[in-house]
């Protein structure tokens, strides 16, 4: 739901004509299985979670994946066809949406590229990011201070209040975020203000006040977020581990001890009868 009518509204995926034939034919135009894929970017836009994988995106509503993904170029009008994936994305306080792909970025108003913004995008260097940085791995608004952070490899930057450039005393080492794997694939602040980092098939919840990953992580994204059937089966299947081996050894030891006790009792009973 978009309260400001002055902004171009974001069109719902189900508003797109399902009978429209894809412009690109072939297997490459088929959406990937989110349960078996690594996410490229993830963010909250308005009050919905958007998940980007390749050139497709999904919506989530209350931790429930909405079916029927949409190809990014059919929804985000003005995004160049050369963009095959979204590396990172975040929503600014003014509700503008910033997309990163490669060494360039685009600003959208609703699902349209903002007026006078070049179709080829603008270079990351406009944010005062060094020219040798070729892509942004993650972009997120940190709930602790509501500032925007950009991550690339083992470095991160904090943006200024207006999100127009990064602050002068950056980049800094990602080791500051204790327990967060490097490189990250995505990061975001959820609807409850919690901070999450993602790498491959796993995710990590971050303890903002302690500046470290919470205990018990990583966890599997497919199981805990998407409720994928196969992930649930794997989680429910019995696992053989060193713990079970130790337990088996204890059981064997207990069994031997029990038999020893029985033999001792029989021997004592025999002695009582004889003597």
Automatic annotation (TrEMBL):
GO annotation, biological process: collagen catabolic process; extracellular matrix organization
SUPFAM superfamilies, A to Z: Hemopexin-like domain
Keyword Repeat: yes
Keywords: Repeat
One GO location term (cellular component): extracellular space
Hemopexin repeat residues: 36-79, 83-131, 133-180, 181-228
Molecular function via GO: metalloendopeptidase activity
Coiled coil segments of this chain: none
Compositionally biased intervals (Basic and acidic residues): 14-34
Annotated stretches, region: Disordered: 1-34
Claim: Chaperone is one of the keywords in the record: no
Entry-linked Pfam families: Hemopexin
Protein's name according to its UniProt entry: Peptidase M10 metallopeptidase domain-containing protein
UniProt lineage: Eukaryota, Metazoa, Spiralia, Lophotrochozoa, Mollusca
Gene name tied to this protein: 106073705
């Amino acid at each position: 739901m978009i309260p400001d009518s002055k902004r171009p509204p974001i069109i719902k995926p189900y508003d797109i004509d399902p009978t429209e034939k894809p412009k690109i034919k072939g297997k490459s135009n088929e959406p990937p299985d989110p349960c078996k894929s690594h996410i490229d970017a993830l963010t909250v836009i308005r009050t919905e979670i958007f998940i980007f994988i390749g050139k497709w995106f999904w919506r989530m509503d209350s931790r429930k994946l909405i079916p029927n993904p949409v190809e990014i170029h059919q929804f985000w009008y003005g995004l160049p066809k050369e963009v095959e994936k979204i590396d990172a994305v975040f929503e600014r306080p003014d509700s503008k949406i910033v997309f990163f792909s490669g060494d360039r970025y685009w600003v959208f108003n609703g699902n349209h590229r903002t007026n006078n913004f070049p179709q080829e995008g603008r270079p990351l260097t406009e944010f005062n990011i060094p020219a040798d940085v070729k892509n942004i791995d993650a972009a997120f608004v940190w709930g602790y201070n509501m500032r925007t952070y950009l991550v690339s490899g083992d470095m991160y930057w904090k943006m200024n209040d207006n999100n127009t450039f990064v602050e002068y005393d950056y980049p800094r080492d990602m080791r500051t975020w204790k327990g967060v794997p490097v490189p990250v694939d995505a990061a975001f602040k959820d609807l409850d203000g919690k901070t999450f980092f993602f790498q491959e098939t796993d995710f990590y919840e971050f303890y903002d006040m302690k500046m470290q990953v919470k205990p018990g992580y990583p966890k599997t994204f497919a199981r805990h977020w998407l409720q994928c059937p196969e992930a649930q089966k794997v989680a429910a299947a019995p696992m053989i581990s060193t713990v079970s081996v130790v337990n088996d050894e204890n059981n064997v030891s207990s069994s031997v001890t029990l038999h020893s006790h029985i033999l001792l009792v029989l021997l004592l009973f025999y002695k009582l009868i004889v003597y």
